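Hey,

Quick one before I head out. I ran the complex with BV8 overnight. Inputs first:
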Amino acid sequence: MTDIRNIVVLTGAGISAESGLATFRGPDGLWEGHRVEDVATPEAFARDPVLVHRFYDARRANLKTVAPNQAHAALARLDAAWPGDLLIVTQNVDDLHERAGATRVLHMHGELRSAWCRGCDARSRWEADLGHHPLCPRCGTGGGLRPDIVWFGEMPYEMDRIDRALMDADLFVSIGTSGNVYPAAGFVQTARYVGARTLEMNLEPSLGSTHFHESRIGNAGALVPAWVDEILAPTP
Ligand code: BV8
């Protein structure tokens, strides 16, 4: 892999499935009978904040019961060893990449373990529930904290940084995402446009599979460690 220096990895809910976190569109993709798309919106939060806080409080609490899997560990190993640029862009709001030891991680859809104050705009690390309207640690007002999550219809975080990384990429790797959600689902086309190699690893072909030079079908927990071994192998 001598001609590869800059790598962008996109991860989705599928990389956390083997850790026991439900994906969005699999058979377990509903929550209390609600489609996620119906709960993960500003309109839902305005209409029924109790329901939306309950959804995120439950998922935040659940983080304490799960652990990173072999796929997260392999990406952390790549992160530690890779001499070139590497950006792990995750659609996931869990903290499993970080708990596996990865550092070059960008949460484009926000994080469960962060709270966003609509009063002072501050973001604070948050482990507990938000449903009981705790005070903002920065401005002290109550009732203004919302989950620091990018909902449908909201702008994903750090799009400029992601676009710059994609424009410089020699290799784009998509792991555990169905290709349903934009703009993430369009990243492979940007990578192709700049001439990067593109690889997908997923339990089934994603909606964007035809845009990838290569598709490896199976569990991320098996495919990702094997791929990291390949990419880190000394070139002959
Ligand atoms: C926006 C936080 C404007 C919530 C999430 C075209 C262009 C731009 C926008 C749109 C567009 N068309 C439609 C839109 C609007 C919308 C959208 O995409 N809607 C979809 C439903 C059609 N997009 C937005 O609203 C976005 N914002 O567009 O702003 C803009 C855009 C660009 C530039 C400027 C302005 C915001 C979207 C963010 C929504 N928030 N997350 C939360 O987590 O509660 S999205 C949510 O879906 C999660 O983050 C999730 O990660 C993400 C994507 O789903 P996947 O990760 O792919 O999960 P899924 O279950 O679908 O698939 C899992 C895959 O894993 C499956 O394929 C499965 O086979 C595989 N798998 C399972 N097990 C394993 C496995 N693979 C390997 N191993 C396993 N063991």
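The chain is about 30% helix and 20% strand.

Talk tomorrow,
K.
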